[in-house]
Amino acid sequence: MGKKVTVVGAGFYGSTTAQRLAEYDVFDTVVITDIVEGKPAGLALDLNQSRAIEGFETKVVGVTTGPNGEGYEAIEGSDVVVITAGLARKPGMSRMDLLETNAKIVRQVAENVAKYAPSAVVIVVSNPLDEMTALAQIATQFPKNRVLGQAGMLDTARFSNFVAEALNVPVASVRTLTLGSHGDTMVPVPSRSTVNGKPLRDAMPAEQIEELVVKTRNGGAEVVALLKTGSAYYAPSAAAARMAKAVAEDSGDVMPVCAWVDGEYGISGVYLGVEAEIGAEGVRRVVETDLDADERASLLAAAEAVRAKQGDVSSM
Ligand code: APR
Fold this sequence. Notes:
By secondary structure, the chain is of the alpha/beta class. It is built from 11 helices and 14 strands.
């Protein structure tokens, strides 16, 4: 049977994610939902009308959902659900400022996902990311491997872009890695970063790497400050769509994602940015990588920071 993916939230992040998923042409159906009357149906019409030009067969279906779960029947049978519902940052806000508002939204969405798409893999992108991922698992009661969050691919892509620009090399020659939280305790991993297969540390001085690390950590805020009305969506949607594709294709690709960590790196019982092998069941396994002492210490610190916040979301 053909694959079905649902994107909840038809804002900037959701609509661009739906577009990318449709253009892959690997799904039978892309469902996009929102609480705004008409918006998802309008986007679906528009996307379907691009099929003849872009050359894809995937059908896009847009559905408005109601406060009591009206409309959620449309997501039945989804293999993957991407949750983008929630407010985005405005200039000066941290992701954590969205916590209470988005917790209410994500809980309501997750409960409906559990009811109508009980075997789906859930990919959370709403912010604050690590907390919303933990909350979605609690609200769905899905096995922890079936709920994961998108952040590491995005942070990694930002880091790679900054390195490529600084060295004036093709972005394809750059490999970087970021772990930890999608926030202040993000952990860029220079020891695992390369340019043309050679260590990043040989390609630029330590101070410049540190500058780019800081720029990466502030990557989202820099976009917010320029856009003024919302947050980034092109790079975020590229990352989320790739994750959904990896699930649908049971690809086994290893990606940096927000996953439940249970013993790896000596860390347990927390959703945290780590590398993981992605397949039809969501996270097949967390892939532990070699870190130097500083990076390991930063990852442990990130784990404790998000653990404290994730404890709060269960009551939200
Ligand atoms: N169910 C479905 N959709 C909802 C719900 C809900 N309960 N509540 C809000 N939405 C929708 C809004 O109607 C809006 O269309 O979520 C959409 C959010 O869109 P934008 O405001 O454009 O925000 P976007 O840039 O898409 O970001 C979404 O991703 O990166 C994170 O921090 C960002 O949490 C934010 C999320």
